[in-house]
Amino acid sequence: MIDRLRQMAIFAKTIDHGSFRGAARELRLSPSVISHHISQLEESLGVALIYRSTRKLTLTPEGHRLLAATHKMLEAVEGELADLSVSATAPSGELRVTIPSVLSQSHFTEQIASFSSAYPRIKLLLDFSDTRRALIDDGFDIAIRMGPKAKSSATSRKLFSVKRKLVGSAEYLSSQPLPADPKDLIGWDWLALTPVHSAPIAFSKAGGNRESIKPEPQVFANDAQALYRLARAGAGLAIIPDFLADADLASGLMQNVLPDWELNAIEVFAVWPANAPKHGLVHLLLDALTQQKT
């Protein structure tokens, strides 16, 4: 079969070039070898494919049929080879990534979009959820996490930090006394993100002053964007990533509570399976996200 396919390819090249000599030059064979292969093909098929003369080669009806079929075969093979060649230089495949829902409102989405534009043959399946998904059990290649301190290990990497602000609506704050200290806020209406509401809230101030409080929230939500919308509607105080409130703070709709006091930033980091190939798609995305961090 392999010999037959080779003979068919030589036959097609010969007709395309119009002579044994022309095909011989392209295929780097002698004209006699070209003629021999075509003769063997004719013998094996039991039909004449070419009428030979001193001036030109003329196809027989059977030759026309075989030439059309051979061209289709060669085009298909050459197309697949071209695709494989592109695949070898352009990464392709699929990546499943779980991401905290709140990051859909941050510059992180722009980083993902840039990666997708740079590697169009990689399919991205993005799971934006504030419910913590299991990396291995839920079948993800990368999990983006948010926490007070990024883990440092062979299978995790810090991407960037997010500043947090304690905010309330201008309407809500107008009904409360002006606070001077974090302890003044303990009896206020608080909104909390589950499951992190149980942790004390640590404040720091220029000069080294530090205070921690543990208020009792009235409303709990498992979605940071919903939490912010509740605060925006006047339900109480909420600690949120700064990028959620920037526009409303600028307009005066929301206010930064205790602006002289700061909250610890949250770090955004990635974790991935230990068996992820070092030069595979997982590390390609990780490197892109790390290089673009701001």
UniProtKB/TrEMBL annotation:
Q: Which Pfam families match?
A: HTH_1, LysR_substrate
Q: Which GO terms describe its molecular function?
A: DNA-binding transcription factor activity; sequence-specific DNA binding
**Where exactly are the transmembrane stretches of this chain?**
none
Keyword annotations for this protein, in alphabetical order, are: DNA-binding, Transcription, Transcription regulation
Give start and end of each HTH lysR-type domain: 3-60
Can you tell me which family this protein belongs to?
Belongs to the LysR transcriptional regulatory family.
Could you identify this protein by its name?
DNA-binding transcriptional LysR family regulator
- Species annotation: Sulfitobacter guttiformis
